[in-house]
Amino acid sequence: MTKEFWDNRFNTEEFVFGTEASEFVKKHANYLTPNSKIFVPGDGEGRNSCYLASLGHHVYATDFSEIAIEKAKKLCAEKNSDVTFEVMNIFDWEPEAEEYDAIIAIFIQFAPPEERNKLFAKFKKALKPDGLIMLHGYSPKQLQFLTGGPKAIENLYTKDLLRHDFAEFDMLQLEEYDAHLEEGHAHKGPSALIDMVARKDDWQY
Ligand SMILES: C[S@@+](CC[C@H](N)C(=O)[O-])C[C@H]1O[C@@H](n2cnc3c(N)ncnc32)[C@H](O)[C@@H]1O
Questions:
Q1: What's the confidence (pLDDT) of residue 197?
Q2: Disulfide-capable partner of 196 in 61, 75, 135, 190 (CB 3.0 to 4.6 Å)?
Q3: Pocket residues for ligand 1 (CB within 6 Å)?
């Protein structure tokens, strides 16, 4: 989807994906060490970054939609959460090595396989040894529900794909399940989800 598509989608008073952090983020936030430095790509209107900052983490959130980021800044101000925002096309991101304690990527399935592979390689580079990657998105079964997410099946995650792509990581959580989402009007209804929490293994790098 283009930047114009997302700008149009976010160009409304309403928070398209709601203002509450994803259940996945809330459920797995206890894996994070206190005061973690966290990178949040494709953060949208800020529901997850504001929540993570409210836990005392140092959150660096990005999205390519200025409109989304303006809404995210407003949300964080209301919640008294201090997040550093940057407008950025994630495919242009050139990360420093070993900068972050965690990368938390929620519904960033806009990347087709070739771009996703490059992005995952950058995530691995940007994580400190022992750093955490937390991914949450849709599995291919979501195409039966059509209650959110891309229709390009190749962009969706399976357990095999994530196990393969993060083979050198310690897999802490990997789960595919159905759940009812109520995240604004964009993610609403029965949904086929997949969660991953994995740790960069110090010995592999
Ligand atoms: C499905 S939304 C999820 C937003 C947020 N993570 C959440 O769960 O509420 C996907 C987000 O990715 C952003 N996005 C799409 N393509 C992008 C790109 N190439 N670079 C940066 N952000 C992008 C969109 O603007 C949108 O905010």
A1: 98
A2: 135
A3: 6, 17, 22, 42-44, 47, 63-65, 68, 89-91, 106-108, 110
